[in-house]
TrEMBL record:
Pathway given in the UniProt record: Amino-acid biosynthesis
Entry protein name: Cysteine synthase A
Annotated source species: Sphingobium nicotianae
Keywords associated with the record: Amino-acid biosynthesis, Pyridoxal phosphate, Transferase, Transit peptide
Pfam entry (one): PALP
Entry keyword Transcription: no
Tryptophan synthase beta chain-like PALP domain mapped to chain residues: 10-300
Length: 328
């Protein structure tokens, strides 16, 4: 057992677990990277740490400074934790449509939370643009800019992909996950391709996002909608630029919920983004064939969605079938 020298060193080096249900369904070996075991309970802790330390190295973030970011929630939680450990304040701008649990967590961590109406990226009131303006108006502040700050991607090139390669003993046939900022899929993809060009990198895209059509047909075009938080993108961010995407899948919320339910039967409580990732991993396993070894990301804990994904009334209001145990 390892004793860590400080709390920030707890970020990363998450376990990898073989998932029985997805493996059986696909005929492949499906593994999940347990990112809910980071201190902030999500994969976004990695980007948060790299973004803050990159700003420190560049002299942009001074003692007593403030970190400002626009986020669906998890990156904000990671930034708040890193900021607390390093003595910085955090101001987090979030769409008011995100789960109450994320809002409550940010407040509990001492972050200043600014809620804005959900809006398209072209709207000046979009949470990303709002956070940039607040950073510009706040003395001794940085804008984390997770979508276009490639320190995000670097966290996965140097961290996540190296861990996966070591844990899989250099035998990886495919990797897939959804894109929010694009940092995870681009960073892991670039890192694994450096190890073995034959590794297939697949985008798993929710409905309502534009990347499936971009990688399949060269056109940024969204179709449908999704209630999944933190994933889905309508533009090529700096983190996505140059991502080595070999193939792509479009996954519905209903498909994702099937796997959320099945993973509960394996003792895992996850969010919808993870369910969508698993559906993509099953599709990739079927494409690559029996015995192929596929890795995906278990993004965060389902306990962050008790008022939404695990709430019967909310699911019904979104036209989704509640999990059977929610009728109790």
């Amino acid at each position: 057992m390892t004793v860590h020298s400080d709390t920030l060193s707890l970020i990363g080096n998450t376990p990898l677990v073989r998932l029985a249900g997805p493996s059986k369904a696909s005929g492949a070996e499906i593994y999940g990277k347990c990112e809910f075991m980071n201190p902030g309970a999500s994969v976004k802790d990695r980007a948060a740490l790299y973004i803050v330390e990159d700003a420190e190295e560049k002299g942009q973030l001074q003692p007593g400074g403030t970190i400002v970011e626009g986020t669906a929630g998890n990156t904000g939680i990671g930034l708040a934790l890193v900021g607390n450990a390093k003595g910085y304040k955090t101001i987090i701008v979030m769409p008011e449509t995100q789960s109450r649990e994320k809002m409550d967590t940010l407040r509990a961590l001492g972050a200043e939370l600014v809620l804005v109406p959900a809006a398209p990226f072209s709207n000046p009131g979009h949470f990303v643009h709002t956070s940039r303006r607040i950073a510009e108006e706040t003395p001794n502040a940085i804008w984390a800019n997770q979508f276009d700050n490639t320190a995000n991607r670097k966290a996965h090139i140097l961290g996540t992909s190296e861990e996966i390669w070591a844990q899989m003993e250099g035998r990886v046939d495919g990797f897939t996950c959804a894109a929010g900022t694009g940092g995870t899929i681009a960073g892991v993809g670039l890192g694994l391709k450096q190890k073995d060009e034959r590794v297939t990198i697949a985008l798993t895209d929710p409905h309502g996002a534009a990347l499936y059509n971009y990688y399949a047909h060269g056109e940024l075009k969204a179709e449908g909608s999704s209630v999944a938080e933190g994933i889905g993108q309508g533009r090529i961010t700096a983190n996505l630029d140059g991502a080595p995407i070999d193939t792509q899948y479009r996954i519905s919320d209903q498909e994702g919920m099937v796997w959320v339910e099945k993973l509960m039967g394996e003792g895992l409580c996850v969010g919808l983004s993870t369910g969508i990732n698993i559906a993509g991993a099953v599709a990739l396993g079927k494409q690559l064939g029996p015995g192929s070894r596929i890795v995906t990301i278990l993004c965060d804990t389902g306990l962050r969605y008790l008022s939404t994904l695990y709430n019967r009334e909310w699911l019904v209001s979104k036209g989704l079938t509640p999990f059977p145990w929610l009728s109790n």
